[in-house]
């Protein structure tokens, strides 16, 4: 008979110290729930074809095995790409350190120097080609069978010097303390060049704590202005925008429908609220549920929800086909998910948006916009331009088209 698992260590650190301790190759996750920093590799979660439980089953089996072997704090951390056949990077780290929210300032964290530069910038595709892609999507919507599709475009930036991921992560954290900041090693096996997924997402895919489940989909957006009067006007317009409210309802309704499969009760607001980031305003719905089956971990729930219509579309198969047919490059980890899950099934997974993949001197970042009936191609270009600003400001690159 196996001995009981040791008690989970209580946080002994403060957020600033964990941010300062981050090194390339570590895993970092900061949210309103707390900060987690993980180092080293104890066990890699096996990949391969997924069963009905997807990566949640593989993570649960791995966690059970390492707990049985005496690991004092088994947690799976990492990232999963957007497409069904996308790569994923999940592992049990050798060391995990945590800090509770509001645990004290720790050492002062100052804004570091920009992470690289000077920069050259390449658009994939260029803005006009992206607008043409939006027109293709609108033709598909008009033809029937597709209600919404999220189309993304990329910027590939090259620095004259290697990019400092710790500097980039710190600048993201300090720029928007309310965001879900993350950094995950997504290096392909056998590749000697370290590749890091880093970002500051505004969107919680799902969290689980005990039997409490929370999801917070965002859909329907408008760029933030530097003028406060203009901001008030934009927020007011977003609240009543028929196009944005319809887009948001597609996402929120789908999240509610999925959670009802796993929860005894689901509570969703009757009306979305407007939340702001440093660069955008979003329609937001905080959806909560009471979990029915304790074996359903946070990663099981994330796999069931992903991809939501906030990053893919409705209906899902048609939206995936449209993305494959219109977008000129593979998204990789962009609009996938990153987070953690522990041996109890608790955890937190966020959408990998407002993010970039960094490798040596290159930074590849994406931004997307939801296309529905009534979308304007030039407005969608402007929305992606605004969403790029989160990463571009952290990189210290002037606005690009």
TrEMBL record:
Which InterPro entries does this entry report, sorted A to Z? Answer: ADC_synthase, Chorismate_C, IsoChor_synthase
Q: Which residues form the Chorismate-utilising enzyme C-terminal domain?
A: 127-387
**What's the name of the protein?**
isochorismate synthase
User: What reaction(s) does this enzyme catalyze?
Assistant: chorismate = isochorismate
- Its source organism is Pseudonocardia parietis
One Pfam short name: Chorismate_bind
Q: Does the keyword Isomerase apply?
A: yes
Q: Which UniProt keywords apply?
A: Isomerase
Mind telling me which NCBIfam families this protein's record contains? Answer: isochor_syn (TIGR00543)
**Taxonomy-wise, where does this protein's organism fall, top ranks first?**
Bacteria, Bacillati, Actinomycetota, Actinomycetes, Pseudonocardiales
Entry's family note: Belongs to the isochorismate synthase family.
Q: Name one GO molecular function term.
A: isochorismate synthase activity
């Amino acid at each position: 008979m196996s001995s009981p698992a040791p008690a989970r260590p209580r946080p002994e650190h403060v957020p600033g110290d964990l941010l300062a301790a981050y090194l390339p190759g570590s895993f970092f996750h900061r949210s309103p729930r707390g900060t987690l920093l993980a180092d080293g590799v104890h066990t890699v979660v096996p990949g391969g074809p997924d069963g009905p439980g997807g990566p949640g089953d593989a993570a649960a089996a791995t966690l059970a095995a390492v707990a049985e072997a005496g690991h004092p704090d088994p947690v799976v951390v990492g990232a999963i790409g957007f497409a069904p056949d996308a790569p994923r990077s999940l592992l049990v780290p050798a060391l995990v350190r945590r800090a509770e929210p509001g645990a004290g300032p720790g050492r002062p964290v100052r804004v570091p120097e920009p992470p690289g530069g000077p920069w050259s910038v390449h658009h994939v595709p260029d803005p006009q080609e992206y607008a043409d892609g939006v027109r293709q999507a609108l033709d598909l919507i008009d033809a029937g069978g597709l209600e919404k599709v999220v189309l993304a475009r990329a910027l590939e930036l090259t620095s004259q010097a290697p990019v400092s991921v710790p500097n980039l992560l710190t600048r993201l954290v300090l720029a928007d303390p309310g965001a879900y900041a993350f950094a995950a090693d997504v290096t392909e096996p056998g590749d000697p060049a370290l590749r890091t997924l880093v970002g500051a997402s505004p969107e919680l895919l799902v969290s689980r704590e005990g039997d409490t489940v929370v999801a917070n989909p965002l859909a329907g957006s408008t760029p933030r202005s530097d003028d406060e009067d203009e901001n008030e006007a934009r927020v007011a317009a977003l609240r009543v925008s028929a196009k944005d409210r319809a887009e948001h309802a597609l996402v929120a309704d789908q999240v509610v429908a999925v959670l009802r499969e796993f929860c005894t009760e689901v509570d969703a607001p009757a009306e979305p609220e407007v939340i702001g980031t440093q660069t955008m305003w979003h329609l937001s719905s905080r959806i909560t549920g009471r979990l029915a089956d304790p074996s359903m971990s946070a990663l099981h729930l994330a796999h069931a929800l992903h991809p939501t219509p906030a990053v893919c579309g409705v209906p899902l198969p048609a939206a995936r086909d449209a993305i494959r047919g219109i977008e000129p490059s593979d998204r990789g980890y962009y609009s996938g998910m990153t987070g953690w899950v522990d041996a109890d099934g608790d955890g937190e997974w966020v959408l990998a948006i407002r993010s970039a993949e960094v490798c040596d001197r290159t930074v590849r970042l994406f931004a997307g916009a939801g296309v529905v009936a009534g979308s304007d191609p030039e407005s969608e270009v402007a929305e992606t331009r605004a969403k790029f600003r989160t990463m571009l400001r952290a990189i210290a690159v002037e606005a690009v088209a």
